[in-house]
Design brief:
mainly alpha, single chain, elongated
Length: 102
């Protein structure tokens, strides 16, 4: 029986056997769906880079990402506030220098 109190809970877990507890926790972690994460599909659908809705190296949402989430996965009508959610400029190679001696 489970009793209220951390000592009783610990005793109950230990009596089940740690291997069983580990198995149950592993299965639970695999079955519980994770929150929706950004996918390449969102980027293809919107034509925006990941960092338009997410801070660099982060899965949290910025202003644009929250708007996208709250408006049925659409940026239609989104107007960024000053300094917020600027799309990264496209990567372009630096201009080539003319050959030496010409």
């Amino acid at each position: 029986m489970w009793a209220i109190g951390s000592s009783a809970i610990c005793d109950s877990i230990i009596s089940l056997g740690m291997s069983k507890v580990f198995k149950v926790l592993t299965i639970a972690a695999l079955l519980i769906p994770a929150n929706a994460l950004a996918t390449p599909e969102y980027s293809r659908r919107t034509g925006k880079e990941c960092n338009y809705c997410h801070p660099p190296n982060n899965f949290h949402l910025n202003e644009a990402g929250k708007y996208y989430k709250d408006h049925g996965k659409s940026l239609r009508g989104y107007m960024p506030s000053t300094g917020a959610a600027k799309a990264a400029p496209p990567a372009t190679p630096p201009p080539k220098a003319p050959p030496a001696g010409k």
